[in-house]
Amino acid sequence: MADALRNRLRELRGDRDLTQAALAELVGVSRKTINTVENGVFVPSTTLALKLARALGRPVEEIFFLDN
Amino acid sequence: MTDTSDIETADRLSRKRARMIPVLAIIFLAGQAAYFSQDRAERLVDHVKIGAWLVWVLVLLALLETGGAFIQSKRVRALINDESTRANCQRAYVIGFWSAMGTGIGLYVVAMFEQVTAREAIHLIVTAAIAGALLMFGMLERRAHRDG
Question: Is the interface score ipTM higher than 0.90?
Answer without folding.
Answer: no
